[in-house]
Write a structure and sequence with these properties.
Number of helices: 7
Number of strands: 14
Strand content: 25-35%
Helix content: 10-25%
Length: 230
C-alpha cells in the first residue's frame, strides 16, 4: 500500500480513462482520492497527453515531484485503435456533433481502403479539428466552433509510423495507428475520407500505448478507487 510520502515523492499512475470522462476530470478524481485518503491539503497530479471525452484508454498520471516528467512522457510516440465510419462527415470529425453530409460508398473497395493508408505514412501535414482544446487569441478553438464563429487553424507536421486496417465491415473500418505527439486521429479519419474521395468521421478511439507504457498495465478507475477502500 502506498503512503502519502510515496505520492508526494512521485508516482507514475497508468489509468484506463472511461468513456465520456475528460482527462481533466480523471486527474481531479485521482487528486481527490489521494487527498481524502491521507488527509492532505494539496497534492500535485497531472496527466501526460489529453484524451478526448469520446476516447478511452491509456492516460499517464504523474504525482508529486514526478509532474516534472510530464513533458517527457507527452513527447513519446503513441498507439491507438479505433473505428472510422465512411460515407458521412461531422463538423467535429467525430461523434460530438451531428452528421452534416452523407456520401455514397458503393464504389469503395477493401483494396482501395488499404491502399489509401499508404498516403498517410511518414511525415504529413495535418490540420487540427476546430472542435479541439488548442488555443487561439486566448480562447479554446472549440469555443469559437460552438459559437458558430469562423476560425482559421494552421496545419502542423506530424509523423505516422504505422497505419493498419484491421477489419472492414462497411461503412465501418477498424484500424491501428502508431504516431507522433500532436497527431489528431479525428483529423486523420477526416482526411482519410477525403483521400477516398468520400467522407469519414471517427466513431471510436482507444489509446493503447504511450512509449513503453501499455493500456494492458493500466487500472480502471474502479480498480484504482478500490485501493483506497480497503
Amino acid at each position: 500500500m502506498m503512503t502519502a510520502e510515496d505520492y508526494k515523492n512521485g508516482q507514475v499512475l497508468l489509468l484506463d480513462k472511461p468513456l465520456e470522462w475528460t482527462s481533466f476530470q480523471l486527474v481531479n478524481k485521482v487528486r481527490w482520492l489521494i487527498k481524502k485518503e491521507f488527509g492532505l491539503k494539496k497534492i500535485k497530479v497531472g496527466h501526460a497527453g489529453t484524451l478526448d471525452p469520446l476516447a478511452t484508454g491509456l492516460l499517464i498520471l504523474c504525482t508529486g515531484s514526478f509532474t516534472k516528467k510530464i513533458d517527457t512522457y507527452q513527447a513519446q510516440h503513441k498507439e491507438y485503435t479505433g473505428t472510422i465510419t465512411l460515407g458521412a462527415t461531422t463538423p467535429s470529425y467525430d461523434l460530438e456533433t451531428e452528421i452534416d453530409r452523407r456520401y455514397d460508398i458503393s464504389e469503395i473497395t477493401s483494396e482501395k481502403i488499404k491502399q489509401t493508408t499508404l498516403q498517410f505514412l511518414g511525415e504529413i501535414e495535418q490540420q487540427p479539428p476546430v472542435f479541439s482544446a488548442l488555443k487561439k487569441d486566448g480562447k479554446r478553438l472549440y469555443e469559437f466552433a460552438r459559437a458558430g464563429e469562423e476560425v482559421s487553424v494552421p496545419t502542423r507536421k506530424v509523423h505516422i509510423s504505422e497505419f493498419e486496417i484491421t477489419k472492414i465491415e462497411l461503412p465501418q473500418v477498424e484500424f491501428r495507428v502508431a504516431c507522433s505527439k500532436g497527431t489528431y486521429i479525428r483529423s486523420l479519419a477526416h482526411d482519410f475520407g477525403k483521400a477516398l474521395e468520400n467522407g469519414a468521421y471517427l466513431s471510436a478511439l482507444r489509446r493503447t500505448k504511450i512509449g513503453d507504457f501499455s493500456v494492458e498495465d493500466a487500472l480502471s478507475l474502479t480498480a484504482f478507487e478500490e485501493r483506497f477502500s480497503r
